[in-house]
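Input (structure):
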């Protein structure tokens, strides 16, 4: 795909100051995502699965060498130096990697099996929790080696490995694993390994199946069964893509790929959408800004549905709203909306540290769970009601419980908008009156007023929403604008800039060409743009957010800038900004959360839903502004 940086596979060595050992980490951009819409895997360019969580995105890892050399991996690669290139098969998240060696060419095809394509709107409904890896020699001859070292529960468990017909079985902790192999593997103290020779035209299959601990456990698969399983997965993804193509504007390939990534980050059983499939990939190499993103943030999930509306015309909105209604269900009428939930609707996501893991590039602590789950963040009401307005026709015909839930959200936004909170960036310092939080409360009431008929809201309630909407608007215009700075700032009475102010035109609060908006756009572009050409969220100096250290430049905020520039009528600048951000994708088109200033390396959990959401939204806005009057860029 054009515009993607073609990074060669890279390893970085980190000296672990805690234990004195040396860790070797693989660059974040060197990874590919596999998903069956239940769990996820990351695969390096060289052919190592160094992250795998099954049966859920937030399950303890089976392979975790992404975060520590001793936390498990599965490598499958040629036994000779090779030049490698890779791509996703068209319309899928099935990975094809071609290794060219001196004596031949090896093609490895990797997929988390989705099950058959019986219904494109239920992709992954019959996922068997199997990672399939096919190896084929397309030219000459190659020797293939595999090293299989599972370490369940984030590397705590070293399972008992035993040979069985057709592969090996691993028992340990709460699960069992079965490795299917075309040749008998050698059992080793670390796991299992084997080698096989292939000549042109030969193809063989390996597979790993997960199962909860049981007397029988998972079985091995025949070569024919694995071939069918892989083909079913390719067809299932392509059926979904064919049924969900909607965007016809510029950067169509990037937008379509982002749609598949966002679909791959959704949990099929409930409709939840995770922010990213990884934990503790840092915002600063060696720093402490390391978080677990394998949960369903209300904000991220709602924005994902908006992006899918552009990129993929989803029919899954009812699943998402059903998840939100159930997850947020409470007997307390005045209970605030929690900002995030587990993919099964869990409320308690208590954070803990895993001190036995060295962390990516020595970035500690490694965390699971996320303490932000009980933070007070006001913007979630606006994001959720904005998405509901996008799908208003579906809401009007929905279960009365959903309509009552959305009405309660609007009522709550009207009641709490005056309160300080921790804001969109989840600062771990003191609560403040963040401009973005007030803005999204305005959005909540604005969208609720606009869809009052769909919600069945009575006239008295709608009038109350309208009155509070105007109060919020007046507060933002009076207290959010800083005359001395010449821009809207991060919080009321503050002088610090924040890229989240770019949401003022994006949400429709002010026109894109309003002088206060264009002044804010210019201020963000001038003062928050880093050496990488990307935009920072805000200035993290002096621990203003309650954390030590710095962070990288933020991909989402750069797409926001492109979107705001387009709304201001500056489509040439918007295109240039968009291209700078899109060029930070890896060779597959995947985006992390941040980019390291100076090196251009990816930082943060990967791939990041918000980054792909930003890409889709910015492309859509630029396309709309550039399109001749009346010409649609979505069908």
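Output (sequence):
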């Amino acid at each position: 795909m054009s515009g993607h940086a073609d990074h060669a596979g890279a390893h970085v060595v980190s000296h672990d100051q805690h234990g004195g050992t040396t860790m070797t980490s693989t660059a974040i951009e060197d990874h590919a995502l596999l998903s069956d819409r239940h769990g996820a895997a990351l695969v390096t360019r060289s052919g190592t699965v160094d992250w795998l969580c099954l049966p859920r995105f937030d399950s303890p890892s089976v392979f975790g060498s992404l975060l520590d050399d001793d936390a498990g991996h599965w490598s499958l690669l040629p036994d000779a130096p090779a030049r490698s290139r890779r791509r996703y098969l068209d319309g899928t998240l099935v990975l094809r990697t071609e290794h060219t060696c001196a004596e031949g060419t090896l093609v490895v095809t990797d997929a988390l099996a989705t099950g058959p394509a019986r219904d494109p709107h239920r992709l992954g409904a019959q996922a068997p929790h199997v990672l399939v890896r096919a190896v084929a020699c397309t030219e000459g001859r190659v020797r293939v080696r595999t090293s299989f070292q599972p370490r369940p529960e984030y590397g705590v468990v070293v399972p008992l490995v035993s040979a069985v017909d057709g592969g090996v079985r691993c028992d340990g902790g709460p699960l069992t694993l079965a490795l299917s192999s075309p040749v008998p593997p050698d059992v080793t103290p670390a796991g299992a390994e084997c080698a096989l020779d292939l000549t042109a035209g030969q193809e063989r299959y390996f597979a790993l199946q997960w199962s909860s601990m049981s007397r029988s456990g998972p079985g091995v698969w025949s070569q024919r069964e694995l071939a069918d399983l892989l083909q079913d997965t390719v067809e299932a993804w392509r059926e979904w893509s064919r049924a969900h193509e909607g965007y016809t504007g510029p950067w169509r390939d990037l937008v379509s790929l982002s749609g598949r990534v966002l679909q791959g980050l959704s949990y099929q059983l409930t409709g939840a959408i995770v922010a990213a499939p990884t934990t503790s990939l840092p915002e600063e190499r060696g720093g402490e800004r390391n978080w677990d993103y394998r949960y369903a943030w209300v904000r991220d999930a709602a924005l994902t549905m908006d992006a899918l509306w552009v990129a993929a015309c989803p029919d899954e909105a009812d699943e998402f709203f059903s998840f939100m209604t159930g997850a947020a269900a409470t007997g307390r009428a005045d209970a605030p909306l929690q900002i995030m939930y587990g993919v099964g609707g869990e409320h308690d996501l208590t954070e803990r540290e895993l001190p036995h893991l060295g962390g990516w590039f020595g970035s500690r602590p490694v965390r699971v769970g996320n303490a932000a789950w009980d933070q007070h963040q006001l913007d979630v009401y606006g994001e959720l009601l904005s998405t509901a307005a996008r799908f208003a026709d579906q809401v009007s015909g929905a279960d009365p419980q959903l309509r009552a839930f959305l009405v309660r959200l609007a009522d709550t936004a009207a009641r709490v908008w005056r309160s300080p909170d921790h804001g969109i960036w989840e600062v771990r310092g003191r609560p403040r009156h963040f401009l973005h939080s007030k803005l999204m409360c305005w959005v909540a009431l604005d969208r609720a007023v606009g869809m009052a008929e769909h919600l069945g809201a009575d006239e008295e309630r709608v009038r109350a929403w309208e009155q509070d909407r105007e109060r919020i608007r007046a507060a933002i215009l009076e207290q959010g604008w800083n005359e001395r700075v010449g821009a809207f700032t991060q919080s009321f009475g503050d002088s610090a800039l924040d890229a989240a102010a770019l949401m003022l035109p994006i949400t429709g609060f002010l026109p894109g060409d309003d002088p206060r908006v264009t002044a804010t756009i210019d201020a963000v572009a001038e003062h928050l743009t880093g050496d990488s050409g990307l935009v920072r969220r805000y200035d993290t100096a002096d621990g203003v957010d309650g954390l030590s250290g710095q962070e990288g430049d933020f991909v989402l905020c750069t797409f926001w800038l492109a979107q705001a520039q387009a709304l201001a009528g500056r489509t040439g600048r918007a295109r240039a900004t968009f291209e700078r951000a899109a060029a930070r994708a890896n060779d597959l088109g995947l985006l992390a959360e941040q980019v390291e200033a100076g090196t251009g390396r990816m930082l943060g959990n990967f791939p990041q839903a918000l980054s792909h959401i930003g890409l889709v939204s910015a492309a859509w806005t630029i396309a709309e502004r550039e399109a001749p009057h009346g010409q649609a860029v979505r069908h």
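Notes: Residues 1-23 have pLDDT under 50 and may be disordered. The longest helix spans residues 459-480.
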